[in-house]
């Protein structure tokens, strides 16, 4: 069974706030919403116990700066096992960038022919069991909450960092309303298909939705549905708005300034089930406009909007492992 590849001034005073995993199945006030949809093939999460919160919590380290002037508003972040992938916020064009985390330089810039960038807000990346990289870009921003549909774009990337294939999907929410979303996560299944899970930005309760995307089943112009699968009281996530998210076989992480909230995940758990427990809380370094977050190979990474921003890394246990999430 394949594993996932971990696919968001001066530092303030660090506090080691770590909330133990909730003993009950759902944290108080959480709503776990049953879905009538076919559960499909099992989730590709290997059997393992949920990890413990780090103790003490790691502190930020920065060794490189993202130097490409074309990366001016980094809004999403994903890890494919070799490179960090990012994109600019709304108005930045339909393009993703591969960043070498050891140097901060751009290893590849991949354009998306035929795609109009509406409001790109987050991406997720993973290495498929066959070794190919997929980058999923979420055109899901909606500040006015009026969009009739949102878009997901799947990019298959060659080893050389060029575009091999693109597929796009239109999606609507199950309540047929508009929602502002900035967190996008992947939940691959054992048959190679992928579920996409998104998190609302500013709603109370915070809403988690899931959409099953089987191969190219929806095709160009097809319409899928995001099903609401969990609601979290905003008080569970202190601070401002949700600006990024990611998930691995061992963790689910959401960025909500000024901290990252990471839920331990056991083998076989869906993302929304893991979010029913209590999160570990990691205070983050102060960034001008920090939005992007991802996990990979024992590291949690964050990046801010703005040119020449430092790439922050936090040592994080069991963040994920090769060759896929």
How would you describe this structure to a colleague?
With 325 residues, the chain is mainly beta. The protein has one domain: Tachylectin-2, Chain A, CATH 2.115.10. The chain contains one helix and 21 strands. The chain has one helix spanning 271-274; strands at residues 31-32, 61-66, 74-79, 84-88, 95-99, 106-111, 120-127, 133-139, 150-157, 163-173, 181-188, 194-200, 206-213, 223-232, 242-247, 251-256, 259-264, 280-283, 290-296, 299-304, 309-315. Strands 1, 7, 8, 9, 10, 11, 12, 13 and 14 form a nine-stranded mixed sheet that branches. A four-stranded antiparallel sheet has the order 2-21-20-19, with no helix packed on it. The protein is globular. It starts with 30 loop residues before the first strand and ends in a 10-residue tail after the last strand.
Give a quick set of tags describing it.
325 residues; mainly beta; Tachylectin-2, Chain A; 9-stranded mixed sheet; 4-stranded antiparallel sheet; 21 strands; 43% strand; disordered C terminus
Low-confidence residue ranges: 1-29, 35-40, 321-325
Q: Compute the average pLDDT.
A: 84
**Principal-axis shape:** globular
SSE pattern: EEEEEEEEEEEEEEEEEHEEEE
Q: How many domains would you count in the coordinates?
A: 1
Q: What is the CATH topology classification name?
A: Tachylectin-2, Chain A
Largest sheet: 9 strands, mixed
Number of helices: 1
Reported CATH architecture: 5 Propeller
Strand content: 35-45%
Residues in helices, as a percent range: under 10%
